[in-house]
Design a protein that fits this description.
This protein has 110 residues and is mainly β. Helices cover 4% and strands 29% of the residues. The chain has 1 helix and 7 strands.
């Protein structure tokens, strides 16, 4: 996915307490439920066109991509809040200087 489409970039700014990101979310459905993060990086994501992100009940794995640009000069910590407590598994991949790190959470995560 290219950063040329600025409509999908979530810009974190000073003095803004919350950010609605639904229209900036890019999605991919892995119907095999076995795709690795590395395999996923070469896939084409589709634009979420709904006010609320809802995949219904499915055996698929759904990947979402958000592109964040931090223009805040305060260098505050930002919190990503997922308003769905029944998500079985949520893995957050984020870039570091050399690779991607991962945070795992969700209802089935100890």
């Amino acid at each position: 996915y290219s950063l040329k489409n600025n409509a999908n970039i979530i810009e974190l700014k000073d003095n803004q307490e919350s950010f609605l990101i639904n229209s900036s979310i890019l999605c991919f459905e892995d119907t095999s439920s076995i795709m690795s993060f590395e395999e996923l990086r070469n896939q084409t994501f589709y634009q979420n066109n709904n006010d609320v992100l809802n995949f219904g009940f499915s055996t698929s794995v759904f990947w979402i991509k958000i592109i964040i640009k931090n223009t805040s000069v305060k260098n505050d910590n930002f919190i990503l809040k997922i308003n769905l407590p029944t998500i079985d598994s949520l893995h957050l991949y984020y870039p570091t200087q050399k690779e991607y790190a991962i945070i795992k959470t969700g209802e089935s995560t100890p």
